[in-house]
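Project outcomes to date are best conveyed with an example. Our students and postdoctoral researchers have been running inverse folding experiments weekly, and each run begins with a structure described purely in tokens. The record below, which covers 462 residues, was selected by the lab manager from last quarter's runs and is presented without edits.
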């Protein structure tokens, strides 16, 4: 058997290539949008990809099922009852898919979504103990899938949570303890609230350590998993819809068009300017009105928190990063990249009339502003789980995924300081406020942790 897990740290997303080396037949499960790595690995192993299996309709990323189908002729499969705008071969509860010696068993495991499935992988059809189970978003390492993502579509979280309880106990936990667990996400994903940094485990280990699998009634489980879930990023509902549609395919090798400054400025009425440089470089000078999301870490997710899905984008970034930015944005469904500024450093130096710096305050400078400016507006853009541990006195809590929808609650004319945990999200938020017309905006270098650390140092006895 050929089995590969592909883990994408920046989206905490896992996908899988499963093949039978004797027959040369293979499937890909929950692929990301840029699919070349699956094609290359399958070719190197002498495999042909004949099917793409989605464990459910994803909301946190745009999947690569259409790209793989186009490039390989593979069938696309979802669980029973999935409604999409393109041809699929539905998979039924208990259905066996033979790749040769390797056999896949489909388990209907609704709960995260109604159509969710899990896939039991056996190296040989008669194996009593499976090699593993691909659990999608039904079970994670240390957690289970959240049941509330479809509440906006009228599907009750309580109803899905009850389905999830039954799926876990009647289907997944019925498998042998030695069965390996391979989920679709890990720590950092907004698809659950307690995901582990580990990317695989066993059912026996999860019985012992997963808080949601401990002995409890169905009612207790429902109360536990419907409470305290993280905020949904703004793009989730957009991606869930796009994953059901026959949308245009990603060309992961096609560079964005190079734009002159005049060409970029001519598009500004329609397109948002996304500056992907490091926050310190952005602060030194950037095109007026641009949004800063640095091209590292969870770049695409944070861009999706503050930019409207479907809006055209033009990029400003370090030379040579344009294709990376385009592909990473495409992974969350931002396909309308109308170009990238050519030779951005020269443009920023030579065109001071359209360039401005941004203000980043040290903790000492921030405390001086608090003292000298009555009514200073302080905005905390951390998530609820973070702010539960404390906030700067007087701060308004406004998590980054809610910032653009709640701007009307802030005073544009009031001097404003934004902070997060360490300074990355606050640079994003401050650029959003400045682009929206706030005329005196700063963000706090080092964020809450720097402020708290200096405060604790000052309070230490001499």
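After processing, the design step wrote out the following sequence:
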């Amino acid at each position: 058997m050929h089995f590969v897990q592909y883990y994408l740290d920046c989206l905490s997303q896992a996908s899988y290539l499963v093949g039978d080396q004797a027959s040369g037949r293979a499937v890909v499960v929950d692929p990301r949008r840029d699919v070349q790595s699956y094609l290359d690995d399958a070719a190197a192993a002498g495999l042909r990809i004949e099917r793409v299996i989605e464990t459910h309709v994803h909301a946190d990323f745009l999947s690569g099922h259409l790209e793989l189908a186009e490039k390989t002729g593979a069938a696309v499969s979802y669980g029973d009852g999935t409604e999409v705008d393109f041809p699929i071969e539905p998979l039924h509860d208990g259905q066996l898919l033979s790749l040769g010696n390797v056999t896949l068993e489909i388990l209907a495991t609704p709960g995260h979504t109604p159509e969710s499935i899990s896939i039991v992988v056996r190296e040989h059809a008669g194996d009593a103990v499976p090699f593993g189970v691909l659990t999608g978003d039904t079970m994670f390492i240390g957690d289970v899938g959240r049941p509330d993502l479809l509440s906006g579509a009228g599907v009750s979280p309580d109803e899905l949570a009850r389905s999830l309880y039954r799926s876990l106990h009647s289907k997944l936990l019925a498998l042998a303890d030695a069965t390996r667990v391979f989920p679709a996400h890990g720590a950092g994903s907004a698809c659950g609230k307690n995901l582990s940094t580990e990317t695989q485990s066993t059912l026996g280990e999860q019985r012992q350590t997963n808080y949601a699998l401990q002995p409890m009634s169905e009612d207790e489980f429902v109360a536990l998993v419907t409470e305290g879930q993280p905020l949904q990023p703004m793009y989730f509902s957009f991606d869930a819809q796009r994953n059901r549609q026959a949308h245009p395919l990603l060309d992961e090798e096609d560079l964005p068009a190079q734009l002159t400054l005049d060409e970029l400025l001519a598009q500004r009425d329609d397109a948002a300017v996304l500056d992907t440089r490091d926050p310190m470089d952005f602060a030194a000078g950037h095109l007026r009105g641009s949004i800063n999301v640095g091209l590292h870490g969870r770049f695409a997710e944070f861009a999706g928190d503050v930019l409207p899905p479907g809006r055209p984008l033009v990029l400003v970034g370090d030379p040579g990063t344009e294709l990376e930015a385009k592909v990473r944005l495409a992974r969350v469904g931002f396909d309308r990249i109308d170009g990238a500024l050519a030779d951005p450093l020269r443009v920023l130096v030579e065109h001071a009339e359209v360039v401005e710096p941004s203000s980043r305050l040290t903790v000492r400078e921030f405390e001086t502003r608090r003292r000298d400016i009555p009514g200073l507006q302080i905005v905390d853009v951390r998530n609820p789980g973070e702010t539960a541990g404390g906030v700067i006195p007087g701060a308004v809590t406004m998590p980054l995924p809610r910032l653009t929808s709640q701007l009307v609650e802030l005073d544009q004319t009031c001097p404003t300081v934004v902070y997060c945990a360490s300074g990355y999200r606050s640079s994003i938020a401050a650029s959003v406020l400045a682009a929206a017309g706030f005329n005196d905006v700063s963000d706090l270098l080092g964020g809450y942790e720097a402020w708290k650390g200096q405060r604790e140092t000052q309070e230490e006895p001499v």
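The chain has 16 helices and 25 strands. The longest strand covers residues 13-20. The training component of this project remains on track.
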